[in-house]
Amino acid sequence: MAKSYALAAIEDNPYQKAIGHLLRDAFAEMGHTLIVTYLPGKRALVMSNAGYLDGEVARVATTSDSYPNLIKVPVAIGQFKATAITYQAPDVYENFEQFKPYRLGILRGIIWSKKWTYNYSHIYANNYNEMIRMLKVNRFAYAFGDHAIFTHIKKTTNDTFKILEPPIFQYNLYPFIHKSHAALIPDLVNALKQIDMTEGLDTRLQRYFHSELQHYLKN
């Protein structure tokens, strides 16, 4: 029987939106409808774990450690690389201590950057466009975010900011389903494998990501 499900995604994030499109395709393969609800990062996890939503489109593998009602779907659906950008030198990442003398820019609601900059001087931005505007006018010296998003913004806009290499860290992303819907997981795994066989998960994801990023940059 066809049903409708709702998964949470982090708001103002074109990569999460792209993964949402990919999962809609997978749920359609299963004969179901997927609604993606966009929320601030932590609020999304709280609501999903409480069962107000049916899961998360993409989170790190260890999410269940802190949110035990969410079960990982064992298919890596994307990858996150944490990185920094700057308009000044140096543009090489050595260790996080190198940022200690500077004011830093982080995205509101993103847990990893808040945790890593806890004892550092930092300012919040509401989205990537605002973050880059603030960086340009020297509100902070370095900004932190997703390597893929920064790379596409730089390529698309010909901006001159530097992306520090290598990334600060990287990890795979997985869908998570609330335990009340655990029976969905085998079918979802099969649907994702079918997409991977016919087109490739990453190929389709990158197509959606490119489209979402074009829309994002116009706003």
Low-confidence stretches: none
Structural class: alpha/beta
Number of helices: 8
Oligomer: single chain
Mean pLDDT: 93
**End-to-end C-alpha gap:** 39 Å
Output the helix-strand order.
Answer: EHEHEHEEEHEHEHEEHH
- Strand percentage: 25-35%
Rg value: 18 Å
User: Can you count the beta strands?
Assistant: 10
- The outline comes out as globular
Main beta sheet strand tally, sense and closure: 8 strands, mixed
Helix content: 40-55%
What does this structure look like?
The chain has 219 residues and is α/β, with parallel strands linked by helices. 40% of the residues lie in helices and 26% in strands. The chain is built from eight helices and ten strands. Strands 3, 4, 5, 6, 7, 8, 9 and 10 form an eight-stranded mixed β-sheet that branches. Strand 6, helix 4 and strand 7 form a beta-alpha-beta unit. The chain starts with a strand and ends with a helix. 36% of the residues are buried. The model has no long low-confidence stretch (mean pLDDT 93).
Task: Furnish the topology, listing elements before pairings.
Layout: E1 4-10, H1 14-29, E2 33-39, H2 41-50, E3 55-60, H3 63-66, E4 70-72, E5 78-86, E6 104-107, H4 111-116, E7 122-125, H5 128-136, E8 142-146, H6 147-157, E9 162-163, E10 169-178, H7 185-198, H8 201-218
Parallel strand pairs: 1-2, 6-7, 6-8
Antiparallel strand pairs: 3-10, 4-10, 5-8, 5-9, 5-10
